[in-house]
Design goal:
This protein is of the alpha+beta class. The protein is about 30% helix and about 30% strand.
């Protein structure tokens, strides 16, 4: 029996007995910290830690060209970078499949929650504001999806809105905040054997059979994304939806408190 097989058997047996390596409950998060304003030169930013997972989110707002089918609306684009210093399996170069999936899941949740009123980003004919959300993974220890969504939301809530005057972008002086009309958070569950856990760490993710990320605001499910090759029963998904609303309510509260400086 090789080391990988032994480790999987060890983790699976402990989870079958409702025991996690760090002593958490099956549906509990590790410690979470949110530090807005982490990048001084960005329009908005935040550093987020979930356990030993650390990400940094930055917001850049620039003048762009509207999409052809939405000539009077601005745009939002999300990108994620898995820095080699964060994990020994990450490589420098073009975005990996994992980075693309991470950015798309975060982007889909925020976009579906209508966090930004894109019509408010219209400047004039052929000119709109484009909001760029960049996620940088500084240390990987599982659950990048929830950390990334928390970071993106905290950064957006603290972002300063540039002005456009006489053909110039003004980024200094008395600037208001980017108008945010909704807040969302995600809860990511991993299924290992027959056991489902929230906020899987790196060891748990290594042996996960299926993953489900549920993004909600305080009223509605805004997005769901399943990952990996395994599956969830309908009854399991229904229970996880209820849990996600419970967890997201607390996460949203903490994001708002951090962004407001409370």
């Amino acid at each position: 029996m090789n080391i990988t097989t032994m480790t999987r058997q060890y983790i699976t047996e402990r989870l079958n007995n409702k025991v996690r390596e760090d002593g958490r409950g099956m549906l509990s998060y590790r410690g979470i910290t949110i530090k807005p304003g982490f990048i001084p030169n960005a329009e908005g930013s935040a550093e987020v830690n979930i356990g030993h997972t650390k990400i940094m989110a930055g917001i850049k707002i620039a003048v762009g060209t509207p999409m052809p089918d939405k000539p009077e609306e601005g745009s939002m684009m999300t990108a994620a970078e898995l820095l080699p210093l964060a994990y020994h399996k990450y490589d420098a170069g073009p975005p990996s499949a994992e980075a693309v999936e991470l950015s798309r899941v975060i982007d889909r949740g925020i976009r579906a929650a209508n966090v930004i009123d894109m019509a408010k980003l219209f400047i004039e004919e052929e000119k709109v504001w484009s909001v760029f959300v960049d996620i940088y993974v500084l240390n990987y220890d599982g659950n990048l999806f929830d950390a990334g969504t928390i970071g993106a939301m905290a950064a957006l809530l603290t972002a300063r809105m540039p002005k456009y005057e006489d053909g110039k972008v003004i980024r200094e002086g008395n600037l208001g905040r980017l108008e945010i009309i909704n807040t969302c958070a995600s809860s990511t569950f991993a299924k290992i054997g027959k056991t489902i856990v929230l906020d899987a760490d790196a060891n748990e993710e290594d042996f996960s059979d299926a993953r489900l990320t549920i993004t909600t605001d305080e009223k509605y499910i805004r997005a769901m994304q399943k990952g990996l090759g395994g599956s969830f029963y309908t009854s399991e998904v229904e229970g996880l939806i209820d849990t996600s609303f419970e967890k997201s309510k607390e996460l949203i509260k903490r994001i708002k408190e951090a962004a407001s400086g409370d």
